[in-house]
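chain below, 389 aa
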Amino acid sequence: MTLESQVPRTPHVQPFAAARSKLIPITLGLIGSLAVVGGTYYFTKSDGTPSADKVAANPVPPAALVAPVNPETMPEVKQQQPQQQVALTQAAQPTATAKPALPAATATAVVPAPAPMPSTAHAVQPPATMPTPVAGAANLATARTLLASDPVGARLALTQLIDSRQLNAADEQVALQAIREVNAKLFFSPTVAPGDIVTKSYTVQSGDTLAKIARRSGVQADWRVIQRMNNLKSEKSLRVGQTLKIPMTAFHAEVSKSAYVMRVYAGEGPTRVMIAAFPVGLGEFDSTPTGVFMVRPKSKLINPEWKNPRTGEHFAADDPKNPIGERWIGLLGVEAHNQGFKGIGIHGTVEPESIGKQASMGCVRMGDRDVEMIYELLTEPNSTILIAP
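prediction:
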């Protein structure tokens, strides 16, 4: 049996049916065109973050359709260095509005490249106010060359060099030895060197004694130093018209506890010069007080007697076992923290092996010959004694 729907239609149709058969393909074509346009709009619309399905749906355009790029017109993108990234994080955050790229010069000013690391020589170079040991050694050599031609200038240069603390231990000993040598002529000899402001000449008059000369000339030291400077055996060797050398200034001492040394200076300030340096012993358990002291009035003694404040044991003046030796110079603290010390002084010792150690009851002890010179140079009220750590 054949269904009616399977029966072939005859070519003869009604006019309306024929028109409808032509409209159907046109309508389908229009619908397809609209679908293509809508799909193109949907897939080409961008919100800045395309999703994965949209990217997959958009075919990659052929290379021939991509506009060529001139490399010379493309800005070079460099990787930021770590320091540049830190600088950017500390700067103000950029706004959302896009800004044109800065020229290369401006970009460098905004985010500077890291400064080059200094060389090792510059990194270890001390400040200008702190000369290096090399410079100190050079100055020491220069000062020593003046010893023969200008001993007065050499002594001042050596003093300032030592006081500047720019010498190493070995060079400081060389400088101290040079000062000893130059003072053997400038200070501890009868000759007055031209330009020396520490000493001057004096002509002996009738009736003079060394004590009178010192008093009349305003000498700020014990009269015995005149005898020492002029190599006199006794006052009996004085003759009228004789030329003597006498000191013109006061003398001061500085004790360095860390170095166990006492340095003696003539004068004060930038023109002071070192006369001598001596090793010392100090108080046990670091008991020697520090600060500025003066000579205690009426405390200077020759061949003193002494009583041990701890045991009460008494030592007579002529006792060879007297621990304080042949000289005593009492010290008086002049600062708030050291005024209360009593019984502190500079003295000799019968134990020379204790020099350079902490062995006394707080005093500054010296060798017998050294303390004799200190006794002559330090006077009251002219001298100051600084005891430094």
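DSSP finds eleven helices and 15 strands in the chain. The two ends are 135 Å apart (CA to CA).
thats it, cya
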